[in-house]
Amino acid sequence: MPALDKPLNELREYMGSGICPEDIDSYWDDAIEEMKAVDPNIELTLAEFQWPGIKWYDMYFTGVKGARIYAKLLKPENPPEAKNLAVIRFHGYYGNNGGWFEYIAFALSGYTVVAMDTRGQGGKSEDTGGFKGTTIKGNIVRGLDDDKHNLMFRHIYLDCAQLAGIVMDMDDVDEKRVGCYGNSQGGALTIACAALEPRIKRAAPLHPFLCDYKRV
To answer: Whole-prediction pTM value?
Structure first.
C-alpha cells in the first residue's frame, strides 16, 4: 500500500479543506452563460500526420476572452456505428496533448478522440493574458489578485466544458456516449468538465491534482 498522509478510512470521508463559497452556483451559472455567448468559430484542417483507417485533424475554436484553443481530433474512417462514441483527453500541468500515436487505439476502436492543449501551457492554445497580480509559479495563481471572473483556471475549466459541447454537437457523435479522462491536472480538468457539462456520461480522473488547492 502506498504511503499516505492520512489513514485510508479518513481519506474515504475527506471532503477537502476549502470552504465552499455561498455564490458558487450563481458564479458558474454566469460563467456558463458567458461561454455559451462566444462564437467558437471552429476550424478543422487535415493534419500533416496521417495514418490509414483514421481521419486526422488539427482543430481550433475560440474560448472565453477570445483565446484560440487547439486540439487534436481523430475520427475513424469506417466507424462500426452511424454515431460514434467519443472520448476527450486533458493533459497534465505545463504539458500538452502529446503525440498522435497516443490516441490510435481509441480511434481504431471506433471512437472519435479529441485531445486539448490547455491554454497558456506547453501546447498551441493561446493565452490572451490580461490578469492583474502575481504570476509566480505559473497558471495556478494567475488572476488571484484580479476580479473573481478573471481567473486563469476559470477560463481553462470553461474551455473544457465548451470543447465537450462542441464534440457532442458533431454530426457523427452520439452525444449520450461521450466521456473524458486525464491524469494529474488532466484528472482535475476531467472532474471540472463533467461538473460543468452534465451530459458527460463517463469520467476517468487519475491523480486529480488541483482539487484541494490549500492543502496541496
So the answer is: 0.92
Write down the pLDDT at residue 1.
45
**CATH node for 22-206:** 3.40.50.1820
Of the two residues 186 and 122, the one the predictor is more confident about is 186
Q: Where are the domains of the chain?
A: 22-206
Query: What's the Cα-to-Cα distance from 103 to each of 107, 114, 115, rounded to whole Å?
Result: 6, 9, 9
